[in-house]
Amino acid sequence: MTKQQERLVGEAPAVREAPPAGQYERYVGGTPEVERAIFEKLARDLMRVQLRIKKRSGAAAIERTFHAKAILGVENARLRFQPDLPEDLRTGFAQPGAEYPVIVRLSNASGARQPDFAPDLRGAALRIQVGPDQAHDLLMTNYPVSHARNAREFVAFAQAMAGADSTLRKGIAVYAKLPLAVGWSTAARMRRNVTAGTGREVRSLALETYWSRGAILWGDAGPVRYRLRPAAGASAAPPPSRSDPDYLGYELSERLARADVVFDLCVQRYEDARSTPIENGAADWREEDAPVVPVATLTIPRQDLDTAAARAIALQVDQLAFDPWNTTDEFRPLGNLNRARKAAYEAASAHRRGYRFRTPTPKRNVVVGGFLRSGFRVLNRFVPWHKLPTWLGLLNIEALRQVLRRDNLIDTEIREAVPKAHPVASPIDERLRVRRTYDGTYNDLSAPKMGALGSAFGRNLPPVYRPDLFDTPNPVTVSRELLHRDTFIPARSLNIIAAAWIQFQVHDWVEHKRHQSVEVPLPPGMTWTNTPGGAPETVMRFADDEGVRPAGGAEPPILSANAASHWWDGSEVYGGDESVAKSLREPNGSAALHLENGHLLPGPDGIPITGFRDNWWLGLSVMHTLFAREHNAVCEALRSEYPRMDENTVYHTARLVISALIAKIHTVEWTPAILATELIDIGLTANWAGPPQNWLTRLGLWLVDAHALTGIPETLPDHHNVPYSLTEDFVTVYRMHPLIPDDYQIADHRSGRTLGTLGFNDVQGSATETLMRKAGLTNSLYSLGIAHPGAITLYNYPRALQAFERNGEIIDLSVVDLVRTRRRGVPRYNDFRAGLHKTRLRRFEDLTSDPDTLARLKDVYRTVDDIDTMVGLYAENPPEHFGFSDTAFRIFILMASRRLQSDRFLTVDFRPEIYTPLGLDWIERNGMKSVILRHCPELAGFLPRTASAFAPWRPTMPERRDRV
């Protein structure tokens, strides 16, 4: 809107509460919720239509699905309501004599930019600017009825006609494709309407009448259809050209150079469901049933369209997204077609503007993929995927991931039931296109709140919410019998840095807010001290999740909000909101994070001030310190390479680089270390960099999933039809506390001399930083690098965490893990594995053959269906060289690629314009080893030669005291 328009708008009239529109409407499937899901699919279908049109037309960019070619775009039109406006039509902004500025776009109707003389409908779009925060979009076409009765027919027609740019293709579309989609009689009726609408001679868009075809609510007056017709006295136009592809534009330009162009805005009132139907867009509202009532005059003033200023305005108007739902609820659109347009216009507009993406699946992938999925389902009854040859195992995993994407992504977003009108969206701040926000908003530009701090956890499995089983069997008994560590069981293929790393990552991904206390009854004869120095009690007490609430009623499924952003954005380093992030930077406005002699600054409680500071221990201190230093190194390199880059840009670019580097390290280094097989190494490397140049593997992927032929950073964002979020099931499989040892040996890397042997309580909380500064980052890394973490198995839960003092309470974290998993509605283990397409257990012996474990399981649980998810995951025999179970791995293969694939900054915006060439090169050249050696070069000789930095390091041989 221009400044002149802003002055003319003034105050918007008050918006009155509209009568319930639902009394006029009937929803597909019977309810708004069912209809919305259907329309979401239709919206995705229209995005495919846009891609097909782009491909067939050879256009450089995605166009509007319809009305691609603008004939006129002006922003200085005026709408003035009649001074004698009928009393019942006076509502909201529609008041006698009221006048508003209007943006006008006139266009051809096709989704391709075809010549003006080609048979086509024409369209008019008005944006009535009522006030700074209120506008009303009116969309019309120059034929009184739609070719489609409803949204399904509308989309079927669009799909059939997509890219039909020749007479032959159009004939095939309407006489072959369309009848197969909607039936012969419906197709015939649609052809008649289209022929009648497009076969008319159009001399000038100023002389056409435009109809809304669908109804809108007009306040207390109820539904109306509106139309825009030429005012009396409009001058005639010459015959249409048969050779000039832009004759309509030239005619309008010449007409406006001579005089104003004036239209009457009219309405027809709703009479009854028979004569003026709401849900049938192909039915005419005849004037004898619903008389036409003029309500306002639209004037497009005389002007010269052949100037640079006019062309610039036309270009701006052409970029706008007109939507009939850009209005108020008092004037909300009605009917099936209009409700479908809410999903369709939002999706198509976001697709066109590069906010939302669609990657079509090749037909061969649909056919061959379905065949292979069926084949592997049969094969896996006899041979599990991890026992197949590597190349066949990779295809098996790819087929399984497709099944999981189809069946195990559950949408938990709470949406409006009945569609609601909305104001015109404000333009997106240009800075949000090139940097991560502090709270995770605007990663998906079409859905700014998706994955942001506070958004709900998703689900991979339908929740099983059983309050009657929260304490059955007693979680304290489960912990003591099946989890308690008597003897440390090491994971000999890893070092403790691997344990620290996964906690470092989990703190980026997930956090449940805590509030009121949960009370867990103790087994008979047992007491627990819940606070330091407190009296023994017969219950164990700890904080519950905040924000657990039913969705859409008083019963489950339950939802819980994530107190971190769901994106892989380094929030554990940078903080989850703007105030925290800015407080971590140097106070002089520098892009660098504030360090004190290379160490994090301690807070008043002795724990460093950083992005996420809960559950602090030596391993976390090492990770945070290392990557704070790495951030500052990236900042220094950016300043050197780009001396004109300001400090805020340096900071945000460095954050992008560090976040992507962390994602790369986790994908191609940490995960193959804990799942140490050739198949996983190839698969995870392919996730980042694409599959190996092995013709058999590439042929298989070409047949099954062509999108996997490149690394995810070279693809477009894809949420796989469900809004992105991390899930409660994902949280469950990442319960890896057995990795934590109970004692630690701190050693000097130069001599191998032991500096101290400490228990976990000596290396956690406020004691951490004193130790960290005394030992130094180099010795701390060395000490963690040469020692093993615990194995993720039964009987290996850290003793220190089973009587853990935190925030003024004493908790048994193993009990907390069990209780919270139950209360979050995560299915018990047998249902969990079955939901992930594994065979159900029929007896305890199907889970383990160990006699002691069998006896304990049978003693604790009544049936195999009662086994806790965490217990089952720990008890399950993992594939060879795996650090955790195959059941947990299934959540992993689904969510690991999803965290990358959904993220704009790790796909379509993983490019030098956003990261800078230096930034992309930094990510490409670096990994965990190089990060360690940049800040601790003395460790070069201790790192593994042929394995990642998460494998055990070479220890220094201590000096022999008896040496002469």
UniProtKB/TrEMBL annotation:
- InterPro entries in UniProt: A_dioxygenase, Catalase_core, Catalase_sf, Haem_peroxidase_animal, Haem_peroxidase_sf, Haem_peroxidase_sf_animal, Oxylipin_biosynth_metab
Recorded superkingdom = Bacteria
> Which residues lie in coiled coils?
none
Q: Which UniProt keywords apply?
A: Dioxygenase, Fatty acid biosynthesis, Fatty acid metabolism, Heme, Iron, Lipid biosynthesis, Lipid metabolism, Metal-binding, Oxidoreductase, Oxylipin biosynthesis, Peroxidase, Plant defense
Q: Which cofactor does it need?
A: Ca(2+)
* Domain Catalase core as annotated: residue spans: 93-358
One molecular function GO term is: peroxidase activity
Say if the entry is tagged with keyword NAD. Answer: no
Where would one find the signal peptide in this protein? none
The family database entries (Pfam families) matched by this protein are listed as:
An_peroxidase, Catalase
| Protein name per the record | Peroxidase family protein
Source organism per UniProt? Nonomuraea marmarensis
Native organism taxonomy: Bacteria, Bacillati, Actinomycetota, Actinomycetes, Streptosporangiales
